[in-house]
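Sequence design from tokenized structure. All designs in this work follow the same two-part layout: the structure record, then the generated sequence. An example of the structure record is given first.
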């Protein structure tokens, strides 16, 4: 079923240490995101132009962007509204005919940003805690210029797609300034970074539009276990490929917060993206990583893939990239759970593909037994 040349391109991509970005991939640094090169080779090897690719845990939208530029239709689901925001900006970046307008706008706006000037405070967001941990003497100047930028943006346009692109420029810059930084940059450095990010995102958008084609993409902010409630999306076309990376068992990845000074969490990304959050980590990670036996996690995986199974056909292939905090029991359990959901593993070339992921900021629960910097690529077909 799997041709040898299919798998050798995937093996090369899995082994590659090259940092591949391009298109709109670098619009945000989504935690635990795919290597775009690996996603690209998997999509090229296991689907054809015009096929449908599904990602039930789309995160930062890597699968969808690669599917789209390769001429595949793509549907993504994710429980996080931040994921939907990012994926839809990456799939609908600023149109080319608006580049010069926003290039002028962003330069004029940057001249106006000044942490000593008044700004209308976003009181609703503040009252709901979205600016938590952004008010100490190093963070308040950045918070204030973010507020000023958002206020100017509201006056600049009513076009939601354009607004979201500019929010994403701000989001990327604010992540750089606030997330896991020991020293918070000053306002001048923030402004320089903002213009640098705007320019690189415009280049990415140009690259994306140049490869554009008329394949369709859809991003849905819902949990994977309700995919089967959307059968209308799959009537004419079932997924040829499900390419995804669910939350990893027992591994702590903070998808939905920034960690100010490396430890104090802020939900500010949702405020900047104008999308509501309101959930704790276990909501996005499928349960508490310290729960014995990870029963919530595994029942979530089962329900999610059982739902995916209902929209697949006999030809669908499911490819997942996963890491484990304790492979010994979690990998067999994961494979059993996939079987309960209606999928059976197959191993191309009779050897599972593992890859090292350097510099990952993950925390496994089981001290000393962590293998979380190693990822495995699992292949399944329908039973
Ligand atoms: C490892 S990340 C995916 C990263 C993605 N492959 C990328 O390249 O950016 C896992 C995602 O699963 C999402 N998630 C967690 N529970 C979910 C659920 N029940 N249904 C759908 N998505 C869920 C999280 O919000 C997170 O975005």
């Amino acid at each position: 079923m799997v041709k040898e040349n299919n798998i050798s391109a995937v093996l090369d991509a899995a082994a590659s240490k090259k940092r591949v970005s391009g298109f709109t991939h670098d619009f945000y640094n989504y935690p635990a995101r795919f290597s775009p090169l690996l996603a690209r080779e998997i999509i090229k090897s296991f689907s054809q132009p015009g096929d449908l690719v599904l990602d039930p845990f789309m995160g930062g939208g890597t699968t969808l962007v690669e599917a789209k530029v390769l001429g595949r239709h793509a549907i993504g689901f994710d429980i996080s509204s931040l994921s939907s925001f990012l994926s839809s900006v990456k799939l609908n970046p600023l149109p080319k005919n608006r580049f010069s307008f926003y290039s002028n706008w962003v330069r004029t706006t940057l001249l106006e940003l000044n942490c000593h000037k008044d700004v209308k405070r976003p009181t609703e967001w503040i009252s709901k805690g979205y600016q938590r941990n952004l008010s100490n003497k190093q963070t308040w100047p950045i918070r204030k210029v973010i507020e000023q930028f958002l206020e100017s943006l509201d006056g600049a346009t009513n076009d939601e797609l354009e607004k979201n692109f500019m929010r994403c420029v701000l989001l990327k810059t604010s992540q750089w300034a606030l997330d896991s930084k020991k020293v918070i940059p000053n306002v001048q450095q923030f402004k320089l970074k903002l213009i640098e990010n705007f320019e690189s995102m415009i280049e990415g958008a140009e690259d994306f539009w140049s490869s554009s084609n008329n394949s369709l993409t859809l991003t849905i902010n819902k949990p994977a276990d309700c995919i089967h409630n959307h059968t209308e999306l799959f009537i004419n076309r079932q997924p040829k490929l499900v390419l995804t990376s669910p939350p990893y068992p027992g591994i702590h990845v903070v998808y939905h917060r920034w960690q100010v000074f490396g430890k104090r969490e802020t939900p500010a990304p949702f405020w900047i993206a104008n999308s509501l959050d309101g959930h704790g980590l276990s909501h996005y990670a499928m349960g508490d990583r310290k729960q014995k036996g990870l029963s919530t996690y595994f029942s979530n995986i089962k329900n999610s893939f059982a739902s995916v199974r209902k929209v697949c056909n006999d030809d669908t292939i499911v490819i997942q990239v996963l890491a484990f905090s304790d492979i010994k029991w979690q990998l067999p359990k994961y494979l059993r759970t996939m079987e309960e959901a209606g999928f059976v593993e197959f191993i191309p070339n009779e050897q599972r593909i593992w890859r090292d992921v350097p510099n990952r900021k993950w925390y496994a629960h089981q001290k000393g037994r962590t293998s979380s910097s190693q990822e495995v690529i699992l292949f399944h077909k329908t039973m």
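The two ends are 15 Å apart (CA to CA). We note this feature because it recurs in several other targets discussed in the main text.
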